[in-house]
């Protein structure tokens, strides 16, 4: 399945487009969206995904097409808009039945249906993608707890984290020390008679 995504439309629908204004805010929002897509889509889908943005605040000096972590990113020509470019890409697609167009723009829905492509509203697609991403993360195996005693370096690290001094901690773990007569508060043979009765 190939994906053709109306970038700014999805930015608005997902809420990724921040409220910040000023130089670089739109570029940061675009990057956040592209990172979300790169982290959320399966590798096979990622390679077949194209995200289209208007030329508004396109990165200066970059070509109209670039790759971001496997995604194809396109910018409309200066003076053009993303919708027109998306319509061109739909019309040029060699297997439109395998194409999903992500946009809430009904003009693009009509263009997709004319070629038998599947149109999906941006907010619905985003919610479904987010749900699938969360499910995949839940299924990932959790990190196993470390086994065995901590190394000296690990002990020193955690002592520093808790503001403790190394001198306050014995240099050997209790299990490694030879047991001294004062380690056991009970005299030899204490409670052996009870153990024999219970045996």
Overall spatial form: elongated
Count of individual helical segments: 8
CATH topology of the domain at 2-139: Rossmann fold
H/E element string? EHHHEEEHEHEHHH
| Distance between the first and last residues' Cα | 70 Å
Structural overview:
- There is one protein chain.
- The chain has helices spanning 7-14, 25-40, 43-46, 82-92, 106-114, 122-139, 152-161, 192-198; strands at residues 2-6, 49-53, 65-68, 71-75, 99-102, 118-120.
- Strands 3-4-2-1-5-6 form a 6-stranded mixed sheet, sandwiched between helices.
- It is α/β, with parallel strands linked by helices.
- The relative contact order is 0.12.
- The model has no long low-confidence stretch (mean pLDDT 81).
- It has a domain at 2-139: Rossmann fold.
- The longest helix has 18 residues, at 122-139.
């Amino acid at each position: 399945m190939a994906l053709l995504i109306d970038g700014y439309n999805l930015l608005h629908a997902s809420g990724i487009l921040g409220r910040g204004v000023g130089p670089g805010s739109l570029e940061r929002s675009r990057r956040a969206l592209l990172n979300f897509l790169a982290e959320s889509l399966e590798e096979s889908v990622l390679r077949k995904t194209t995200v289209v943005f208007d030329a508004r605040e396109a990165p200066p000096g970059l070509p109209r097409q670039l790759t971001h972590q496997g995604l194809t990113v396109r910018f409309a020509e200066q003076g053009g808009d993303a919708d027109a470019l998306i319509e061109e890409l739909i019309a040029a697609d060699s297997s439109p039945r395998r194409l999903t167009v992500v946009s809430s723009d009904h003009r693009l829905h009509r263009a997709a249906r004319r070629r038998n492509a599947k149109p999906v509203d941006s907010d619905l697609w985003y919610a479904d993608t987010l749900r699938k991403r969360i499910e995949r993360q839940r299924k990932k195996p959790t990190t196993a707890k470390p086994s065995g005693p901590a190394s000296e370096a690990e002990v020193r690290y955690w002592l520093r984290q808790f503001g403790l001094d190394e001198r306050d901690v014995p240099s050997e773990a209790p299990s490694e020390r030879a047991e001294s007569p004062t380690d056991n508060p009970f005299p030899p043979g204490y409670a052996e008679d009870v153990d024999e009765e219970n045996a």
